[in-house]
Amino acid sequence: MVLLDGKAISSQIRAELAEETAQRRAQGLKVPHLAAILVGNDGPSETYVSSKVKTCQEIGFESTLLRFDHSISEAALLAEIQKVNENPSIDGLIVQVPLPAHISVDKVMETISPAKDVDGFHPINVGKTVKNLPTFLPATPYGILMLLKRYEIETQGKHCVIIGRSQIVGTPMSILMARNEYPGNSTVTLTHSKTRDLDGICRQADILIAAIGRPGMVGPEMVKQGAVVIDVGINRIEDSSKKSGFRLVGDVDFDRVAPLCSYITPVPGGVGLMTIAGLMRNTLKAARKDFYP
Ligand code: NAD
Questions:
Q1: Is residue 2 assigned to a domain?
Q2: Can you tell me the distance from the alpha carbon of 247 to that of 253, in angstroms, rounded to the nearest whole number?
Q3: Which one of 91, 119, 251, 253 is the catalytic residue?
Q4: CA 109 to CA 101: how far, in whole Å?
Q5: Residues 36-61: what's their mean pLDDT?
Q6: What kind and span of H or E run contains 187?
Q7: Catalytic one among 5, 91, 96, 231?
Q8: Which pTM value belongs to this model?
Q9: 242 is catalytic
């Protein structure tokens, strides 16, 4: 069994990004600038946003964190997004989800300029992804593709089973794994909470990608010997031995599943770090104006 080391690969990618950023600075070109909007005080969101800002600092990007109170109206938030859209110094914008219930995530995503949509959630960018036109790929699926690529994992003709059909992970992942390129060319099955015989379908997977949000749900009865297992889940479970009172676990029961796998991602240290790497690469592409000249 080989551990897919998101920590090592993401640090390689950060080094590459830092180098290109330093070259851009030396050539007098614009340094990538990421803005993040955080609404309210959700614990995990605070952690995610601060690690994105920290990564920007580490690789030499500029970053701006815009914080708003939980009570901000939808109209006021959309106006703030519009200001970022019109600010030429900012290349990429992310709005951390979840948002308070009175704010429509769809309206927020549609208000972000497609040219600054480094999370790849705007319908125009989703459409381009489906049509296999060059654009910002959603950061988590993008990070998973980079991981598969750097470990040279064969995907062509393989049966890839994805658990979870979210707009940010499962659904775009299914489209990317079916594309006629590498990584891709897999035969994809997208499963979800209404799927019958989930265990049986998962047992057919050469590549199993779990994006569910249920700690340890994928057990050995769902995994074929030799499968590649990608665990997207990040779940907090109580742990009184930790200072924070919790620890992070994935959707896969790692200890029981790992012995069956050819490759597996750990949690933490797997897909989470690759997601940040994907976001940073998208931000550099936004600054370079790769997709929206
Ligand atoms: P979501 O909550 O939007 O969707 C969960 C999906 O799981 C749904 O499509 C649902 O149909 C499916 N599901 C739920 N219960 C099921 C069951 N019993 N059987 C089969 N399918 C079931 O999830 P999301 O936003 O994609 O997040 C999933 C997990 O991934 C969460 O733990 C989240 O924290 C994590 N996540 C991690 C990263 C990362 O960078 N590693 C990024 C995004 C999300």
A1: no
A2: 14
A3: 119
A4: 15
A5: 95
A6: strand 187-191
A7: 96
A8: 0.97
A9: no
